[in-house]
Amino acid sequence: MYQVIASDLDGTLLNADHMVDAYTAETLRLLQAQGVHFVIATGRHYLDVRGIRDVLGVRAYLITSNGARVHDWDNRLVYAENLEPEVARQLLQPEFSEGTHLNVYLDEQWLAGSQAQWLADLHQDSGFSYELADLPNHSGEGIAKVLYIAEHEHLLTVEEKLIERFGDELYVTFSMPDCLEVMAPTVSKGHALTAVLAELGIPAADCVAFGDGPNDIQLLQTAGHPFVMGNANPRLTDALPHVPQIGLNTDAGVAHQLRKLFHMAEPKN
User: What Pfam families has UniProt attached to this entry (predicted)?
Assistant: First the structure.
């Protein structure tokens, strides 16, 4: 029996414009009316995702910053894990950030080291945006996530430097090919989903989950019924070769799969 649906956003639940489509929103609202619980699990900031949840029109737990923050449907903070300040300060230095667009997530802020209108445009559903900051001189306090944005090939070199310097002292993952994200070592979407399921009193065996990126590996490993998007990153499909693949996010693949699982009729035109 499926009681919980957990889904990533970009590349999974959202369309090519990083927005919610009407078909997906209708599908989730109909399932909620049947008593199904929802969990949004994403690398995005909590304040951003709260706005997307409002657009979807459903009550949902929010796993954000790749699991560094968990809020319930009433916006109560359930779980929080920050980077160690000294480590965070090192991550903000040019040794790692040179050649990238550097970003930092705190509880109430999204800080960026330089202007990038295209990045703000990705958050048009919620209206959430960044503030410019002198990140190399930040105290490192209260940082949930450090995010480097650049061409994938360059980020591979950054990833290599981070692993060489910090090893398992950090959780380093790609949310998208051009987004390399760094959190505390105990953070993951899977760990956060376990906390949410415990709050709900629902076993992982009754959870369906969807994802498309390497930062979804632990999420899909935790859920009893995982699904990989047809547009998934090869790192994800290589890590979970036996997980079924479904349609594309550009074709509302999650909503179509949910209608199959729950034996829902398609809307009449």
Answer: Hydrolase_3
Burial class (CB in 10 A: 0-12, 13-18, 19+), 72: middle
User: Residue type for 93, please?
Assistant: Q
Q: Which residues are catalytic?
A: 8
Domain boundaries, given as residue ranges, for the chain:
4-80+187-261, 85-183
The CATH number of the structural domain formed by 85-183 is: 3.30.1240.10
Domain 4-80+187-261 is found in CATH 3.40.50.1000: yes
pTM over 0.90: yes
Sheet with 61-64, side-by-side order of all strands = 77-80, 69-71, 61-64, 37-41, 4-7, 207-211, 225-228
Confidence (pLDDT) at 125 = 56
Helix axis angle, 46-56 to 22-33, nearest 10°: 80
User: At 17, is the pLDDT very low, low, confident or very high (cuts 50, 70, 90)?
Assistant: confident
**Positive/negative CA dihedral, 183, 188, 189, 193:** negative
